[in-house]
Each structure stands twice: as structure tokens, then as C-alpha cells.
Amino acid sequence: MPEFHTPPIMPMAIRFDHEQLTLAPAGPTLTRRMSDLEGLFRDEAARAAAAAGENPVVYTVTSSPVPEANRELPQSITTIMPGTTSGEFWMTKGHQHPDHQGEIYLAITGRGGILMFDGEQTSWLEMLPGTIGYIPPGWAHRSVNTGTEPYAFLAVYPGGAGHDYDWVVEHGMGKRAFRGPDGSALLRPFAE
Ligand SMILES: O=P(O)(O)OC[C@H]1O[C@H](O)[C@H](O)[C@@H](O)[C@@H]1O
Ligand SMILES: [Fe+2]
Question: Which fold has domain 15-189?
């Protein structure tokens, strides 16, 4: 059998803690605060003011030890806090896979959505606990918390796909998700 790592990755069981929203054994984790999201919300001035003030945590990503390497299938739990910035729901940065490969998300808790953009079309998937969202190759993707509790999902993705954040800065995401009058998500044109 070919070996891709030193030491090789061995079969493993990964435990998901539904209360803590953690994986064990654990791999890398990251925390993204408002200061990490420059230029991504419609109201950049409001984002900058929040970053200069309390600088809240917007989301965390905790991974298993499976590496982001070709042919591996790493997993992560992303937890997005509830909130809005000038009415726009809190969200992940969003990225395109430089190597166009698909990805799946499984919603675990809370309420959210996946905004996808292929450069021409926008797609929006409602994500409730138990929903599996499929992201086809070539669709940039951003997750959004549309509820009032933390929204968490499991992602399983090809380890060699990579993360291109500049693509989203260059092309946008087609639409943005705002809190509508009744509290539910209202999609508006990206630049409106
Ligand atoms: O990378 P972001 O756009 O900030 O999204 C946060 C994370 O969401 C999911 O968990 C993906 O599988 C991760 O690869 C990604 O890093
Ligand atoms: Fe991805």
C-alpha cells in the first residue's frame, strides 16, 4: 500500500462530542474574530468598529488529526456564533477550492445556510440539524448562521482541495444573507 505520510495515517475512530462540539483525538483548531473578516460584510465600517471594540469571536473550526493532504479526507466542526452586522448574518469567510473538488457538510445544531457561487449562479441551502449539504466542484461556499443559537456543522472534504480566499474577494458570492423582517434569511444581491 502506498504511504503518503510519515508516520502513515492509520485507520482511526474519531469521537464527536455533541455537547462540546469537539472531535477527539483533536487536530488543529482556529478561531476567527471580527478582526479577521475585513472587507467581507456589506457594512465594512460597522465590521471595523466591532473589531476595534469587543472584537467578538464569529466562528471556530476544530479539526480531526487527518491532514489536509492529497487523497486524505479531513473533517472539521465549524461553529458560527449567532449575530448580525448591520443586519447581515454572521458567516464564514468563504472560499473556493483551487483544485475543484466537492465537499459535504452535515448540520449538527442550530440553524444556518450554505451560500454557494460558481461565478455566475448563486445557490442557497437551508441547513437544519440532520441536513447534508452537498457542495459540487467549482462552487465557492460560505456558511451563515441564520438563527439565534450557535450553528455547528461537520465538514468532510478532500485534503488536497485547498482554500482560496482571494477568489471570494475578487468574485464576491453573488448574494448576501440578511435577517428579514420576520427573522428569517433574506438574500440580497451582493453589491446592493
Ligand atoms: O475556511 P472558511 O471559509 O473560513 O470556512 C471555515 C471552515 O468551514 C468548513 O469547516 C470547511 O471544511 C473548512 O475547510 C473551513 O476552513
Ligand atoms: Fe471547502
Answer: Jelly Rolls (2.60.120)
